[in-house]
Specification:
By secondary structure, the chain is α+β, with helices and mostly antiparallel strands. Among the domains are: about 160 residues, no CATH class; about 140 residues, no CATH class. The protein contains 19 helices and 10 strands. The strands form 2 sheets. Strands 2, 3, 4, 5, 6 and 7 form a 6-stranded antiparallel sheet that branches. It has a 4-stranded antiparallel sheet with strand order 1-10-9-8, with helices on one face. Helix 8 packs antiparallel against helix 9 and helix 9 runs antiparallel to helix 10. The longest helix has about 30 residues. The termini are far apart.
């Protein structure tokens, strides 16, 4: 198995190098033969890497402990579901998986652009060559630095097993989705390099770049949120985001990627912010590599990081430097071509709102970047590990996020090129007044945190703006064509699916932000030590300790406390928080148990057990926390709607557009 896997990776490296050289010659000389060879090499490389991935999967499934990778992350008692996660649980396996995702994205790029375009269109050949170069980088690491097919001198009887933290169903979903988001950002970068190299007109590359960016951003968003859900269910501290360096490393490209989506729209619709767009496209890709550098280099301490590998970190740093040089050199050489010349017509325009939003997103990214990398600077100056706590991020990013949330409400009511102030205030009056009334009502209801009240007011304002916009557009359609309101709304959404896809994504972000505010500001926590049949209460819930159970599951010894749960006297069911001691591990893991509603989450952990069966439990009540992950379904629906084939004629009956 090891021989086949190594053979595939080594030949994939050679094919990728050949494809890179052929692509450079084909793009430089306009030679169709070399361009076609580069395209065909992409298929060969994909086949070889896919075969290598299959070989590793078979080795894991067969418990082939002769491979160092399989012995390090698998065991005979590991449940089948978690055998899948072994593919990306370790350093070399995750790099192979990343390389496979990249080659699949490259193939999709080849299929979308077609054989004829890749044979005749120099910018497309250049973009494909850039993807070959990135692939060559990963294959070099897999063959020379960190291979998953290294053999052990002696085959052990059993493997070390998977890290207990990774033995959660969501870990079969979180890393692949996040990796797809990271890999997807390579395509806009490659398209931008091709456009810069050959001065491609906007219409020939922006639409494809926008679609790739939206898909990658969607996967990145869902991956980050699912990572938060994993932390919430597995780490047992009642929260889901701790401003950990690796968490932050994934958030930073999400922030710049969100800004990039809006610069793409600005350039596509108005021909503006060309330089900013190119910079954000390149920066977002580079920041995904930087996130990988932080995770794998060992330069920062994190719960989510791999074991330190400084040589690997140096290689990723090298890729970052090369990417910066390539992007910077082409941008300087094409500075005149990047000059848009289009001016802002009004401060009360959608262009101005977009620009302000882009600035806020970039400020957020800079703030998180500086806080995350501060320990690195501390080491350089001999100050040791200077750690930035969560309070810094909350104080510094909180106001910026609130401003951004408010801007998401105002922007849909602004027109391209501007709107009169009287018309704007008329449109904002009802949503703004309602948001203010909600904040006042919540203040009298006992909520005193100013940031929370402002957040709720802005969230209500933003949601009502979206609803008002939909009702206004549907009403315009009903004046043109007689139809029921429900049908008018459906037709409006379909005909303006790009707009309403974006508004659905905005709605998802607003609901997610509401969940974050509620669960952060209004979390209730209480701990108690109980004997059997003793109860304690927390915000209307009563938990009664019934029994203690001991059992052995597939690969762990488990102790669980059975608790009967009542709410205002009504029996809701039974919760069983647990402690688990996994095979081949000395760490005891805490498994929380939850009672979930759309409005709040009762989250209970078993903190301790004594010899006389006394238990210590900690309970949290987290309001609206389910909105944080539930909003992802709305976001995905919005992305799908925005990506559906679109024609300008669909909006004809809905004019005038704003």
């Amino acid at each position: 198995m090891a021989t086949i896997g190594k053979f595939c990776l080594e030949w994939a490296l050679l094919v990728s190098l050949f494809a890179l050289i052929a692509g450079v010659i084909g793009a430089r000389l306009g030679d169709l033969r070399f361009a076609d060879l580069s395209r065909r090499a992409a298929w060969v490389c994909a086949g070889l890497i896919t075969l290598a991935e299959i070989v590793l999967a078979v080795a894991i499934a067969r418990h082939d402990f002769s491979l160092d990778y399989v012995a390090s992350y698998s065991s005979l008692s590991l449940p089948r579901l978690y055998l899948v996660t072994v593919l990306w649980a370790g350093q070399s396996g995750s790099l192979l998986f990343w390389s496979w995702l990249l080659t699949m994205a490259t193939l999709l790029f080849v299929l979308i652009n077609g054989n004829r375009r890749l044979g005749q269109h120099r910018p497309s050949v250049t973009s494909l060559t850039v993807l070959h170069g990135i692939q060559l980088f990963f294959l070099t690491i897999l063959t020379c630095v960190s291979s998953p097919f290294e053999l052990l001198p002696q085959t052990p009887v059993n493997g070390a097993g998977l890290n207990p933290l990774l033995q959660n169903p969501w870990m079969a979903f979180h890393p692949p989705v996040l990796f797809i988001g990271y890999v997807g950002m390579a395509i806009p970068f490659a398209l931008a390099i091709g456009a810069l190299a050959w001065r491609v007109p906007d219409r020939e590359w922006l639409h494809q770049c926008r679609n790739w960016a939206i898909v990658a951003w969607c996967f990145l968003t869902v991956g980050i949120v699912v990572g938060g859900l994993w932390a919430y269910l597995e780490l047992g501290w009642g929260g889901y985001w701790a401003w950990d360096p690796v968490e932050n490393a994934s958030l930073i490209p999400w922030l710049t990627g969100t800004a990039m989506l809006h610069t793409l729209i600005m350039q596509e619709r108005r021909g503006m912010l060309k330089r900013t767009n190119i910079v954000l496209i390149g920066l977002t890709f580079i920041l995904t590599i930087f996130a990988t550098f932080l995770t794998r280099s060992g330069i920062l301490n994190s719960l989510h990081a791999f074991a330190p590998n400084y040589s690997l970190g140096a290689l990723f740093l090298g890729l970052i430097v090369v990417s910066l040089i390539l992007l910077g050199t082409l941008s300087l050489r094409r500075s005149k071509w990047l000059h848009s010349g289009t001016l802002f017509d009004s401060l009360l325009s959608r262009e101005s709102a977009f620009l302000l939003g882009i600035i806020l997103l970039c400020l957020l990214a800079i703030t998180v970047f500086l806080g995350t990398t501060l320990p690195i600077y501390g080491k350089w100056v001999g100050a040791g590990d200077a750690v930035v706590g969560g309070s810094f991020y909350n104080r510094s990013t909180g106001p910026l996020f609130l401003l951004l949330l408010g801007l998401m409400g105002i922007a849909p009511m602004l027109a391209w090129r501007g709107r009169t102030s009287r018309d704007l205030w008329r449109r904002l009056a009802l949503p703004g007044g309602t948001g203010l009334a909600v904040a006042i009502g919540l203040r009298f209801a006992g909520i005193h945190a100013v940031s929370a009240l402002v957040g709720y007011a802005i969230a209500v304002f933003a949601v009502l703006i979206i609803v008002q916009r939909l009702v206004s557009d549907a009403g315009l359609l009903r004046r043109e064509v007689r139809m029921a309101w429900t049908r008018a709304i459906g037709v409006t959404v379909w005909r303006r699916r790009r707009r309403y896809g974006a508004l659905l994504a905005h709605l998802a972000i607003v609901l997610m932000a509401t969940g974050v505010i509620a669960s952060s500001f209004h979390q209730t926590e209480r701990s108690a030590t109980l004997v059997k049949d003793q109860s304690f209460t927390i915000t209307g819930y009563e938990l009664r300790y019934e029994d203690l159970t001991y059992y052995h599951e597939a690969n762990a010894d488990v102790v669980g406390a059975r608790l009967a749960v009542y709410h205002n006297g009504t029996f809701l069911g039974t919760l069983q928080p647990e402690k688990k001691l996994y095979d081949n591990s000395e760490h005891v893991m805490t498994e929380p148990s939850r009672h979930t509603t759309p409005w709040q989450d009762l989250y209970v952990i078993l903190a301790g057990v004594t010899d006389d069966d006394r238990i210590t439990i900690t309970a949290y009540v987290n309001p609206l926390v389910e909105w944080v992950w539930g909003s992802c379904f709305i976001l995905v629906a919005g992305v799908i709607l925005a990506l559906l084939p679109y024609r300008r004629e669909d909006e004809a009956v809905l004019q005038p557009a704003a």
